[in-house]
Amino acid sequence: MGYIKDLENTVADYMQGDYEIIETTSIPSAENVTFGKKAYKIKLTAFCIDLRKSTDLLVVHDKQTCGKIHKSFLTIASKIITANGGQLRSFNGDSILAFWPANYKSEIEKAVCAAFQLKWALDVKFSKYFEKYSKLDFGIGIDWGDVYIIKAGLPRNDNNNDLVFLGMCVNFAAMTANQAKGPNHIEISIQTYSNLTDNWLYGKDNHGNKVNMWKDGTINWKGKVWNTKLTNWQLPLND
Asked: Which residue range(s) make up the domain with 73?
């Protein structure tokens, strides 16, 4: 085939020596990250939303109906995430992975705000459209921490390469999204919870009393039980 030797040389180069680490405070675009032994290091809030039991939809409904459900779900999530300043970085059939910078508490809270608004949009505002076919269930997971960004795939063809986001918070957000479900659709790490101000910790009950919006939760991950916080609170959007 003629490419195995070149491939071996490339892999040998990637696997030897240190990478150049470039620290940044803004999420780079794919065009700004080059191939080779370079990685961008950044503090990010990782946000994952996952559609529950999407495989069951394929069994119950025809492909066209599944397409309608998935496209509507992903469109609603994409719009609310980007309206809150999040950057979409991965679509995986029934899930979205998005990021916010995490240099300040206010940036972390934007991700939580998006989660509250998505809870309302999917569970209340647009639920009538989905309930014609199936009641939607979904999970949202959020964590933050150091992330390394590298460019992977094949050069000189934008359809065959992309940015890869590597960090414990990315995997933790995905795992909590995979676990969270109604009525507590939102589940976040303790690190995320500890960076929230009172506006995102407390609300008012039906009697006007101040209450904590979050409950204690846990997740089994990598052979360990991790504490989390989960909530069923939501934030309506004005027309």
From this structure: 18-26+35-188
List per-block mean pLDDT (blocks of 10 residues) for the chain, which spans 239 residues. Answer: 82 88 91 86 97 61 72 94 95 89 95 98 92 85 96 78 92 95 96 97 93 97 94 91
Query: What is the rounded distance in angstroms from the CA atom of residue 129 to the CA atom of residue 131?
Result: 6
Asked whether residue 111 is assigned to any structural domain, the reply reads yes
Q: Residue 127 has what pLDDT?
A: 92
Contacts of 166 (CB under 8 A, 6+ apart): 147, 148, 149, 150
Single out the residue of 148, 151, 163 nearest to residue 43, CA to CA. Answer: 148
Q: Domain count for the chain, please give it.
A: 1
Q: Cα(231)–Cα(185) distance, rounded to whole angstroms?
A: 7
Question: Is residue 170 included in any domain, yes or no?
Answer: yes
Tell me the two tokens of residue 198: 């009172």
The answer to whether residues 10 and 65 touch, using CB atoms and an 8 Å cutoff, is no
| The predicted structure's pLDDT at residue 57 | 57
Q: What is the CATH number of the domain that holds 72?
A: 3.30.70.1230
Q: Is residue 230 part of a domain?
A: no
Task: Report d(CA 80, CA 195) in Å as an integer.
Answer: 22
What is the structure's pLDDT at 61?
Answer: 52
C-alpha 229 chain-centroid distance? 16
